[in-house]
Amino acid sequence: MDTKRTPQPKPVIKRYWYLPVISLIVLAIYLSKQFLGDASYFVARDKLQMANVKQGDFKIEVRGSGVLKPKSLQWSAAQSRGRVQQLLAKPGDSVVQGQKIAVLENVELLSELEKIQWELKAIKAENNAAAVAQQAQQLDLENAVMEAEFNYKSSKLKLDAEQSLLDQGKGSLSALDFKRTQLAVTQQYARWQAQIKRADKMQQNYQASELARQARLEQVENNLRKAQQQVSGLTITAGISGIVQKLPIELGQQLNNGENAALVIDPGSLFAEINVQEIQVKDVVMGQPVTIDTRFNKLSGEVQRISPLSENGLVAVEVGIISELPKEARSDLNIDGYIEVTNIKNTLYVKRPAFAPKNRTVDLFKTTNDGAFAQKYEVKLGTSTAKYIQILSGLNPGDQIIISDTSAWASHSSVKIQ
């Protein structure tokens, strides 16, 4: 006879085996939610660049690179042909106007100067001798005129006396003697007048000779001055006070007349010339403030001139320096210039993100307070500079955004930063 078996109930663990599995799944989902949030993409923190939104005055600047240049400069050139014999200054030396920088040598010029000096001495001696001789001749002529006048007047007195005797009917004067006396008076008068004319001609001749001698003397003196100037031109001097910027000559070098030998600049007259892109120069006007960065100091300046020409897409802007010049300031020093074209008061701005054009609405990733996640927000941008961009809406002061390239995960609305 068969015995009836009573079925044993299944253990609880077998009957509800799925409950732990479900619990683990729920726990995993919970933990995952706590860890991942709504993020659907992971990014490495060390590959991200962050920036905080700031509030304040937002300066719109146009940037340009350039150099410092002197307004006051002068090349000193060789005024005569010669070989460099002495160099009395070096680049970087301070000089005053008229100070010697170099001395040239030219034996031919020195010989020519000496020759003209001797020629001038000889001409002066000759002119002096000729003047003495003419003065002696003039004295002889003056004596001859006086003697002829005396003879005439003596003859005239005799004629007058004989005429008086004849008029009174006294004496035994014959008519023949009277006629002879009249003839003698006429002859003496003619001789007197001839001597006067001869003296006048001699005076004219003396004056003409004197003019010729003076002209010859002036010609030689002019040649002497030219020779002295040429010899003086062998000394190269500073045209202005300042610093020797360039000295492109060396000992023994042959220089031609007019060849540049030394450039002297006034370091106190430095200004900045910066090159601005032609698409940005439209915002630049006269008088705008400028910050000049020398890499060691920042100087203040203002726009003084804008070139009307564009070269290779760049426009030269001349900036006057207002600040005191620092020690490193020198001609041709590379600098950066930042021209302030606009200053927006009390606005939001942030360091410019990658691929964030001005006056556009873009998607930017803002980090959470704990920095573990970044979520996408629609942000309206305003005007911009090379480094910063204005925030019109979508962010608040203190918000932190990702400014590095986010194009690889731009389709995700939230990312996990790890």
TrEMBL record:
Its main location: other. The keyword rRNA processing does not apply. InterPro entries: UPF0194_transport (IPR050465). Residues 106-149, 210-237 form a coiled coil. It is found in: Cell envelope. The chain crosses the membrane at residues 12-31. Keywords: Coiled coil, Membrane, Transmembrane, Transmembrane helix. One of its GO terms (cellular component) is cell envelope. This is Efflux transporter, RND family, MFP subunit.
